[in-house]
Amino acid sequence: MTLLATTSADRAPGWAPWRRALWYHGAFYAQTWRASVISSFMFPILYLLSMGIGIGHLVSKHTGLVEGQSYLHFVAPGLLAITAMNLACNECMWPILGAVKWVRTYQAAIATPLEPEDVITGKLAWVAVRLVATSAVYAAIIATFGAVSSWWAVLLPLVGLATGMSFATILAAYSLTLESDTAFATIQRFLVVPMFLFSATFYPLHQYPSYLRWVVQLMPLYHGVALARAVTFGSPWHWALALHAFVLIALSAVGWLLARRLIRRRLVV
Protein backbone atom coordinates (compact mmCIF):
# COMPACT_ATOMS: atom_id res chain seq x y z
CA MET A 1 0.00 0.00 0.00
CA THR A 2 2.97 2.35 0.20
CA LEU A 3 2.51 3.00 -3.49
CA LEU A 4 -0.76 4.72 -2.65
CA ALA A 5 0.80 7.16 -0.25
CA THR A 6 1.11 10.79 -1.26
CA THR A 7 2.98 13.69 0.19
CA SER A 8 2.27 17.39 0.24
CA ALA A 9 4.61 17.74 -2.73
CA ASP A 10 2.39 15.33 -4.66
CA ARG A 11 -0.48 17.77 -4.14
CA ALA A 12 1.37 20.48 -6.03
CA PRO A 13 -0.53 22.13 -8.90
CA GLY A 14 -0.68 19.91 -11.94
CA TRP A 15 -0.31 16.66 -9.99
CA ALA A 16 -3.25 14.28 -10.15
CA PRO A 17 -3.30 12.26 -6.88
CA TRP A 18 -5.36 9.49 -8.47
CA ARG A 19 -2.23 8.56 -10.43
CA ARG A 20 -0.91 7.00 -7.21
CA ALA A 21 -3.86 4.62 -7.23
CA LEU A 22 -3.31 3.94 -10.94
CA TRP A 23 0.36 3.20 -10.25
CA TYR A 24 -0.61 0.80 -7.47
CA HIS A 25 -2.86 -1.23 -9.78
CA GLY A 26 -0.16 -1.28 -12.45
CA ALA A 27 2.46 -2.49 -9.98
CA PHE A 28 0.12 -5.18 -8.70
CA TYR A 29 -0.71 -6.30 -12.23
CA ALA A 30 2.99 -6.57 -13.02
CA GLN A 31 3.09 -9.44 -10.52
CA THR A 32 -0.05 -11.20 -11.80
CA TRP A 33 -0.17 -10.47 -15.56
CA ARG A 34 0.43 -14.09 -16.58
CA ALA A 35 -3.10 -15.04 -15.54
CA SER A 36 -4.54 -12.65 -18.14
CA VAL A 37 -2.54 -13.95 -21.09
CA ILE A 38 -5.17 -16.56 -21.94
CA SER A 39 -8.04 -14.06 -21.95
CA SER A 40 -6.03 -11.45 -23.88
CA PHE A 41 -4.48 -13.70 -26.52
CA MET A 42 -5.95 -17.20 -26.59
CA PHE A 43 -9.67 -16.39 -26.24
CA PRO A 44 -9.71 -14.04 -29.27
CA ILE A 45 -7.98 -16.65 -31.39
CA LEU A 46 -10.29 -19.45 -30.22
CA TYR A 47 -13.41 -17.32 -30.71
CA LEU A 48 -12.38 -16.33 -34.21
CA LEU A 49 -11.51 -19.90 -35.13
CA SER A 50 -14.78 -21.34 -33.81
CA MET A 51 -17.21 -18.54 -34.65
CA GLY A 52 -15.60 -16.72 -37.53
CA ILE A 53 -14.15 -19.64 -39.45
CA GLY A 54 -16.08 -22.66 -38.14
CA ILE A 55 -19.62 -21.27 -38.13
CA GLY A 56 -18.64 -18.86 -40.89
CA HIS A 57 -18.00 -21.78 -43.23
CA LEU A 58 -21.56 -23.03 -42.67
CA VAL A 59 -23.02 -19.54 -43.10
CA SER A 60 -21.16 -18.98 -46.37
CA LYS A 61 -22.46 -22.30 -47.73
CA HIS A 62 -26.10 -21.52 -46.98
CA THR A 63 -26.55 -17.74 -46.99
CA GLY A 64 -23.39 -16.26 -48.45
CA LEU A 65 -22.44 -12.80 -47.19
CA VAL A 66 -23.83 -11.13 -44.07
CA GLU A 67 -24.47 -7.42 -44.62
CA GLY A 68 -22.03 -7.53 -47.51
CA GLN A 69 -19.27 -9.18 -45.46
CA SER A 70 -18.06 -12.68 -44.82
CA TYR A 71 -19.23 -14.04 -41.48
CA LEU A 72 -15.68 -13.79 -40.13
CA HIS A 73 -15.60 -10.06 -41.00
CA PHE A 74 -19.08 -9.62 -39.53
CA VAL A 75 -18.54 -11.35 -36.19
CA ALA A 76 -14.96 -10.28 -35.38
CA PRO A 77 -15.73 -6.66 -34.31
CA GLY A 78 -18.59 -7.87 -32.13
CA LEU A 79 -16.25 -10.26 -30.35
CA LEU A 80 -13.93 -7.33 -29.57
CA ALA A 81 -16.83 -5.44 -27.97
CA ILE A 82 -17.79 -8.55 -25.99
CA THR A 83 -14.22 -8.89 -24.73
CA ALA A 84 -14.26 -5.27 -23.56
CA MET A 85 -17.54 -5.83 -21.72
CA ASN A 86 -16.30 -8.99 -20.00
CA LEU A 87 -13.05 -7.36 -18.92
CA ALA A 88 -14.92 -4.40 -17.44
CA CYS A 89 -17.32 -6.67 -15.57
CA ASN A 90 -14.52 -8.79 -14.15
CA GLU A 91 -12.58 -5.73 -12.99
CA CYS A 92 -15.45 -3.80 -11.43
CA MET A 93 -17.58 -6.29 -9.53
CA TRP A 94 -15.76 -8.66 -7.13
CA PRO A 95 -12.49 -6.67 -7.01
CA ILE A 96 -14.21 -3.44 -5.95
CA LEU A 97 -16.55 -5.07 -3.45
CA GLY A 98 -13.60 -6.99 -2.02
CA ALA A 99 -11.55 -3.82 -1.71
CA VAL A 100 -14.21 -2.12 0.43
CA LYS A 101 -15.73 -5.11 2.23
CA TRP A 102 -13.22 -7.91 2.78
CA VAL A 103 -9.63 -6.86 2.05
CA ARG A 104 -10.37 -3.19 2.91
CA THR A 105 -7.71 -1.93 0.53
CA TYR A 106 -9.60 1.29 -0.08
CA GLN A 107 -9.87 2.05 3.64
CA ALA A 108 -6.09 1.74 3.86
CA ALA A 109 -5.69 3.99 0.83
CA ILE A 110 -7.70 6.87 2.29
CA ALA A 111 -5.59 6.69 5.46
CA THR A 112 -2.97 8.37 3.23
CA PRO A 113 -3.54 11.85 1.76
CA LEU A 114 -5.53 10.22 -1.04
CA GLU A 115 -9.21 11.12 -1.16
CA PRO A 116 -11.88 8.48 -1.84
CA GLU A 117 -12.47 10.04 -5.26
CA ASP A 118 -8.79 9.57 -6.09
CA VAL A 119 -9.01 5.88 -5.22
CA ILE A 120 -11.97 5.09 -7.48
CA THR A 121 -10.70 7.31 -10.30
CA GLY A 122 -7.35 5.51 -10.17
CA LYS A 123 -9.11 2.16 -10.32
CA LEU A 124 -11.22 3.19 -13.31
CA ALA A 125 -8.16 4.67 -15.00
CA TRP A 126 -6.45 1.29 -14.63
CA VAL A 127 -9.48 -0.42 -16.16
CA ALA A 128 -9.23 2.04 -19.06
CA VAL A 129 -5.56 1.16 -19.57
CA ARG A 130 -6.39 -2.54 -19.65
CA LEU A 131 -9.28 -1.98 -22.06
CA VAL A 132 -7.10 -0.10 -24.53
CA ALA A 133 -4.28 -2.65 -24.32
CA THR A 134 -6.57 -5.68 -24.65
CA SER A 135 -8.56 -4.11 -27.49
CA ALA A 136 -5.33 -3.30 -29.32
CA VAL A 137 -4.22 -6.93 -29.02
CA TYR A 138 -7.62 -8.11 -30.23
CA ALA A 139 -7.54 -5.67 -33.16
CA ALA A 140 -4.12 -6.97 -34.18
CA ILE A 141 -5.41 -10.55 -34.05
CA ILE A 142 -8.46 -9.59 -36.14
CA ALA A 143 -6.16 -7.99 -38.71
CA THR A 144 -4.00 -11.14 -38.74
CA PHE A 145 -7.11 -13.15 -39.60
CA GLY A 146 -7.76 -10.79 -42.51
CA ALA A 147 -11.02 -9.51 -41.00
CA VAL A 148 -10.23 -5.79 -41.31
CA SER A 149 -11.57 -3.83 -44.28
CA SER A 150 -10.47 -0.28 -43.49
CA TRP A 151 -7.67 1.76 -41.94
CA TRP A 152 -10.33 3.19 -39.63
CA ALA A 153 -9.83 -0.05 -37.69
CA VAL A 154 -6.97 1.70 -35.87
CA LEU A 155 -9.78 3.22 -33.78
CA LEU A 156 -10.83 -0.18 -32.45
CA PRO A 157 -8.91 0.27 -29.15
CA LEU A 158 -10.89 3.48 -28.56
CA VAL A 159 -14.14 1.69 -29.33
CA GLY A 160 -13.17 -1.04 -26.88
CA LEU A 161 -12.39 1.65 -24.32
CA ALA A 162 -15.75 3.37 -24.74
CA THR A 163 -17.64 0.07 -24.66
CA GLY A 164 -15.85 -1.25 -21.60
CA MET A 165 -16.04 1.98 -19.61
CA SER A 166 -19.79 2.21 -20.13
CA PHE A 167 -20.00 -1.01 -18.11
CA ALA A 168 -17.07 -0.43 -15.77
CA THR A 169 -18.21 2.86 -14.27
CA ILE A 170 -21.82 1.77 -13.73
CA LEU A 171 -20.78 -1.55 -12.18
CA ALA A 172 -18.16 0.16 -10.01
CA ALA A 173 -20.84 2.49 -8.63
CA TYR A 174 -23.20 -0.41 -8.03
CA SER A 175 -20.54 -2.55 -6.36
CA LEU A 176 -19.88 0.25 -3.88
CA THR A 177 -23.46 -0.08 -2.59
CA LEU A 178 -23.34 -3.82 -1.88
CA GLU A 179 -22.65 -5.84 1.26
CA SER A 180 -22.67 -9.24 -0.47
CA ASP A 181 -21.61 -10.60 -3.85
CA THR A 182 -24.79 -12.59 -4.45
CA ALA A 183 -26.08 -9.96 -6.88
CA PHE A 184 -23.13 -10.50 -9.21
CA ALA A 185 -24.29 -13.96 -10.26
CA THR A 186 -27.66 -12.46 -11.19
CA ILE A 187 -26.00 -9.74 -13.22
CA GLN A 188 -23.93 -12.30 -15.10
CA ARG A 189 -26.86 -14.61 -15.84
CA PHE A 190 -29.60 -12.12 -16.65
CA LEU A 191 -27.72 -9.11 -18.02
CA VAL A 192 -24.23 -9.98 -19.25
CA VAL A 193 -25.03 -13.32 -20.92
CA PRO A 194 -28.20 -12.04 -22.69
CA MET A 195 -26.25 -9.04 -23.98
CA PHE A 196 -23.50 -11.39 -25.15
CA LEU A 197 -26.04 -13.38 -27.15
CA PHE A 198 -28.57 -10.78 -28.26
CA SER A 199 -26.77 -7.49 -28.99
CA ALA A 200 -26.55 -8.13 -32.75
CA THR A 201 -23.21 -9.76 -32.06
CA PHE A 202 -23.74 -12.97 -34.05
CA TYR A 203 -26.42 -11.93 -36.52
CA PRO A 204 -27.73 -8.62 -37.87
CA LEU A 205 -30.33 -6.50 -36.13
CA HIS A 206 -32.84 -6.94 -38.96
CA GLN A 207 -32.94 -10.69 -38.23
CA TYR A 208 -34.69 -10.02 -34.92
CA PRO A 209 -38.49 -9.76 -34.80
CA SER A 210 -39.54 -6.13 -35.15
CA TYR A 211 -40.97 -6.03 -31.61
CA LEU A 212 -37.58 -7.05 -30.15
CA ARG A 213 -35.33 -4.71 -32.09
CA TRP A 214 -35.93 -1.78 -29.76
CA VAL A 215 -34.97 -4.00 -26.81
CA VAL A 216 -31.68 -4.89 -28.52
CA GLN A 217 -31.02 -1.22 -29.25
CA LEU A 218 -31.35 -0.38 -25.55
CA MET A 219 -28.45 -2.66 -24.65
CA PRO A 220 -25.13 -0.83 -24.14
CA LEU A 221 -23.22 -3.63 -25.83
CA TYR A 222 -25.24 -3.11 -29.03
CA HIS A 223 -23.81 0.39 -29.38
CA GLY A 224 -20.28 -0.90 -28.90
CA VAL A 225 -20.80 -3.65 -31.47
CA ALA A 226 -22.23 -1.17 -33.99
CA LEU A 227 -19.28 1.20 -33.56
CA ALA A 228 -16.73 -1.61 -33.78
CA ARG A 229 -18.27 -2.84 -37.04
CA ALA A 230 -18.40 0.68 -38.46
CA VAL A 231 -14.69 1.35 -37.99
CA THR A 232 -13.69 -2.17 -39.06
CA PHE A 233 -15.73 -1.92 -42.28
CA GLY A 234 -14.89 1.76 -42.87
CA SER A 235 -18.57 2.74 -42.90
CA PRO A 236 -19.31 6.40 -43.69
CA TRP A 237 -19.88 8.51 -40.56
CA HIS A 238 -23.55 9.38 -39.94
CA TRP A 239 -25.83 10.44 -37.11
CA ALA A 240 -26.52 6.88 -35.91
CA LEU A 241 -22.82 6.29 -35.24
CA ALA A 242 -22.66 9.58 -33.36
CA LEU A 243 -25.58 8.37 -31.26
CA HIS A 244 -23.81 5.09 -30.47
CA ALA A 245 -20.73 7.00 -29.32
CA PHE A 246 -22.83 9.44 -27.28
CA VAL A 247 -24.64 6.64 -25.44
CA LEU A 248 -21.38 4.94 -24.44
CA ILE A 249 -19.71 8.18 -23.35
CA ALA A 250 -22.79 9.33 -21.44
CA LEU A 251 -23.05 6.04 -19.55
CA SER A 252 -19.35 6.22 -18.69
CA ALA A 253 -19.64 9.78 -17.41
CA VAL A 254 -22.76 9.12 -15.33
CA GLY A 255 -21.26 5.98 -13.82
CA TRP A 256 -18.02 7.78 -12.95
CA LEU A 257 -19.84 10.61 -11.21
CA LEU A 258 -21.98 8.13 -9.26
CA ALA A 259 -18.93 6.07 -8.28
CA ARG A 260 -17.14 9.17 -6.97
CA ARG A 261 -20.12 10.09 -4.82
CA LEU A 262 -20.80 6.57 -3.57
CA ILE A 263 -17.23 5.76 -2.60
CA ARG A 264 -17.11 8.80 -0.32
CA ARG A 265 -20.41 7.78 1.22
CA ARG A 266 -19.11 4.23 1.69
CA LEU A 267 -15.67 5.03 3.12
CA VAL A 268 -16.16 8.27 5.02
CA VAL A 269 -18.45 7.79 8.02
Provide the gyration radius in Å. 20 Å
Q: Given the C-alpha coordinates, what overall shape results?
A: elongated
Strand content: under 5%
The ordered H/E elements are: HHHHHHHHHHH
Which structural class do you get from the secondary structure elements?
A: mainly alpha
Mean pLDDT: 89
Structure description:
The chain has 269 residues and is mainly alpha-helical. It has one domain (36-267). It contains eleven helices and no strands. The protein has helices spanning 18-32, 37-62, 71-92, 94-101, 105-109, 116-144, 156-175, 182-198, 210-218, 220-233, 239-267. Helix 2 (37-62) packs antiparallel against helix 3, helix 6 (116-144) runs antiparallel to helix 7 (156-175) and helix 6 runs antiparallel to helix 11. The longest helix has 29 residues, at 116-144. The protein is elongated and about 60 Å long. The protein starts with 17 loop residues before the first helix and ends with a helix.
